[in-house]
Give the backbone structure.
Amino acid sequence: MAAIDLRLRPARMPAYCRPNASAPMNPDARTDAPVQPAVARRLPWRLEDIPFDTIELPKIRGREDMMFLLGAASFIEFASDTYAGNLAEFFRDEPDIAAWLSQHWEPEEVQHGRALRAYVEAVWPEFEWQRAYDDFFVEYSKLCGTEGYESTCGLEMAARCVVETGTSTAYKAIRDFADEPVLVRLVEHIRSDEVRHYKHFLQFFDRYHAREKNSRLRVLRSLKNRLVESRHSDFEIGLWYAYRTRYPDERRDGKGFTTMQSRIARKVRDHYPAGQAIRMLLKPLRLPAFLSSMIQPMLSPIGLVIRQVLLR
Ligand SMILES: [Fe+2]
Ligand SMILES: [Fe+2]
């Protein structure tokens, strides 16, 4: 099964970190309410900056796989509201981190969803986004109820670096085969947000690490956990509901859907920045410089493995 790691939520959930699991989901996650002016001022770029009216339709309109890919990405990004509150709650002991998560990270992720939705609807007006998202959300929200974190804040920050590595590198690949200029510009905005998110999480990791002093082995285990647990189910779910709007009679295990997934995964894999991914993933290990340079020659084959894991 093909998939791409655009997942934002964690996968497991130990009992001790479930304070908000039974809380109602943020209803804003399911609506397209206007962005509050105070929030809009904090955003590094605005939806209004994207010239949707200059989209070169002949370059994109016939690329149906892009409709599914961008539709699925928009669902996942848009739904980040669903668990963002839990994440901020998890880091409540560091008010500036909790504030950054709720005032910057969350609105930026949601804007990714809004912008991708706007692009999809501009190019494929027949795509029933809201209906597809509502169906997606029914299945997806059940997974969000079992989200989970690492055992310490520092280790969770390392795991967050894995998530942002996955999104930033996937968007880099998408940007490189997007071709249509407005889409390239939009995806580049999103990619650069994801890289900045990664840098914040890495900085926060360092802060916790100074206190927690987790061994490299523990950090490595957290990185591996989040990487391996990236089951890609989110993206598969997103793709399915995007695909179903066009092919309502198809089956989820049918050839049409699975072949489309494989095509998309192949496309992303061909453009995937594997070396960059491995460099980003290794950073929380804070390896000594000599060790880093020693493993440089290994980056390529390891990157291929990472690519296979992220894009299996
Ligand atoms: Fe995002
Ligand atoms: Fe992000």
